Sequence to fold (83 residues):
Amino acid sequence: MQKRTTILMDADLLERLDRFAARSGVTKTSVLTAAIEAHLEAHDTALDLSFLAVGRSDHGRLSLDGRSIARREAGVRPGPDEV
Fold:
């Protein structure tokens, strides 16, 4: 479902957008959508560890170390049992 919105931007930037869209043969909406998606992708701070499986091990702190490494890589502070 698409929704309409209004944005305000500098006149020079809007002219650049108009020229780029015309030169590329695409709509301004598609350019803005792609730019916003790229920006959000690059700046998304959500912790997505769907690729990671952590379990229990008979090898000491292996599972705690795995969580600690994953959190460190994601920029999340360690929990009290991981210090």
Notes: Residues 1 and 60 are 50 Å apart (CA to CA). Residues 28-43 form the longest helix (16 residues).
